[in-house]
Amino acid sequence: xxxxxxxxxxxxxxxxxxxxxxxxxxxxxxxxxxxxxxxxxxxxxxxxxxxxxxxxxxxxxxxxxxxxxxxxxxxxxxxxxxxxxxxxxxxxxxxxxxxxxxxxxxxxxxxxxxxxxxxxxxxxxxxxxxxxxxxxxxxxxxxxxxxxxxxxxxxxxxxxxxxxxxxxxxxxxxxxxxxxxxxxxxxxxxxxxxxxxxxxxxxxxxxxxxxxxxxxxxxxxxxxxxxxxxxxxxxxxxxxxxxxxxxxxxxxxxxxxxxxxxxxxxxxxxxxxxxxxxxxxxxxxxxxxxxxxxxxxxxxxxxxxxxxxxxxxxxxxxxxxxxxxxxxxxxxxxxxxxxxxxxxxxxxxxxxxxxxxxxxxxxxxxxxxxxxxxxxxxxxxxxxxxxxxxxxxxxxxxxxxxxxxxxxxxxxxxxxxxxxxxxxxxxxxxxxxxxxxxxxxxxxxxxxxxxxxxxxxxxxxxxxxxxxxxxxxxxxxxxxxxxxxxxxxxxxxxxxxxxxxxxxxxxxxxxxxxxxxxxxxxxxxxxxxxxxxxxxxxxxxxxxxxxxxxxxxxxxxxxxxxxxxxxxxxxxxxxxxxxxxxxxxxxxxxxxxxxxxxxxxxxxxxxxxxxxxxxxxxxxxxxxxxxxxxxxxxxxxxxxxxxxxxxxxxxxxxxxxxxxxxxxxxxxxxxxxxxxxxxxxxxxxxxxxxxxxxxxxxxxxxxxxxxxxxxxxxx
Length: 715
Known about the structure:
Layout: H1 9-26, H2 29-32, E1 40-46, E2 50-52, E3 56-65, E4 69-72, E5 86-89, E6 95-103, E7 107-111, E8 116-121, E9 124-133, E10 140-150, E11 156-165, E12 169-171, E13 189-190, E14 221-225, E15 231-235, H3 240-261, H4 269-278, H5 283-308, H6 311-319, H7 321-339, H8 348-358, H9 362-376, H10 378-392, H11 399-420, H12 433-460, H13 468-486, H14 503-519, H15 545-548, E16 576-577, H16 580-590, E17 594-599, H17 604-614, H18 617-626, E18 628-633, E19 646-647, E20 654-655, H19 658-670, E21 677-681, H20 698-713
Parallel strand pairs: 2-12, 16-18, 17-18
Antiparallel strand pairs: 1-3, 1-13, 3-9, 4-8, 4-10, 5-10, 6-9, 7-8, 10-11, 14-15, 17-21, 19-20
């Protein structure tokens, strides 16, 4: 699973400076009274200009995305939050959709708000859909839906386009010219149709991934057509976010290799191996070959894993219960092995064969000697290597290779270095019980990390077996036991009695118990922001003191019959509506202004506003006491009864879903289509003050609410 950390404080600080400058411009009414144009510009081409009737061809959807904007892909969990890119085809008998939509190399980023990975394009996005041609004159058209967001201003804009593919030559059987099958020939362009699309059913895309809304900061990428007709991602500049993540993973892998050296299976082998090379002809050269062989063997393992990965496979790994429970089992078994319950060993016959080949001598013998080391040390290195491979199994091609190369480099350096400078051996500490201590500490960490994979499956499938307090209880116990182990109060099967506690063990136990104390308030609702990426959502807590002390008793709104209250919920125990007309009617009844929150499931900036601005006591008090709140989700796909459908005056399209009608209301009534977008209105839906968008300053937001209340009072 490709789990990356959320944005660093430095990134937030830089974004905050940019946002402060932009907000000064956005506060004018004129700025909010403009419809935002689409930030993605589409072209439609065929993968080849000519086909036979009955053959297949790829439809290529290409979006050129404005600078500083990004667009979501189609291949992650639609229930996670962000609005996926979809293409709905008008059904007819001239063509047939084959297989699923294939996005071409989207980027992946972990977003803590959604506790998962989203996939997105920046600069250019390419999607391919295979179709079978059934007629001499195929009619291929439909409608696309997508969402673009800015990581500078925080705005998110839903978009839709009518598309039509034209210009494909359909030849009779056996009549296709060589040029038609030559991928080096230019593709045939299609036009963008602006005619209203008819009702259609879109082919389901592969949506087996977790995701989250990224706020990417890396420069644009571009896509080129490969010689085989497939689309490949070609970098036009480095991606700082991805590069930093890769470097961080490589460093973690390197450190893991150093830790592996300190295990009982590996550390005692170092002097024996080095002694072998110091008595050999060309011993120093062979020592180099030995070290390089170790790196090649582990890198080969990483290469095999990388070939098994891919975007679809990554999606499967991210959310499906099977791989997550499998990873949970792997980490759990590795943890028990490190604690001393049993040893994971390879078949002795296989190890003996490799050892015999190592005795043959020469450079081939040196390679098999390295292979034997890898096999013999497997019971200690296997859990560490397995953990690294699990961490890199997220559709990455480079990551597992880099990880294994870094791990093996750290693993090989001591063997080569001590062979070149054998006098250094005298400085090595003697083998002893401290080696087993390293192994046991790793065992406790493996058990703690195993729970993360079980938690993912539990959340996605709503099993409710590992709620936040249960998860925290396990971690508190595991790390408390680790602290007692470091102090010598707990012994595992391979430990010797501890007569005195060394200073390093005391320091480590202090750190461990401090971590335990930090986690304890989380059992009663403390946010534990440092662990947000590892813990289940706070909403899964059975007992949350924050809820008990959040403020007033439930408002009269809770007694109202509200539409869609079973589908949507407001944060921070706020009470409100999810239907525009209901909110206006209730506001008139209680004589309060209305706070309209144009939001979306896939709007990370909306969640950030709720978590960092709405939660401010001054803002929360005003929202609870001074306004009737209505949250209107513009990307919700819940289809309404046909009697509630209508044709929009804005784009002449039939609006059938809750989201489509809310988005249409925002455009037609309030002349805006960005999220988050906050409007303060009277009982007739008329604006009281200029609307507000993304602004992380709670004081400014409170002043915004005060200005709306004052304007309402003057009416």
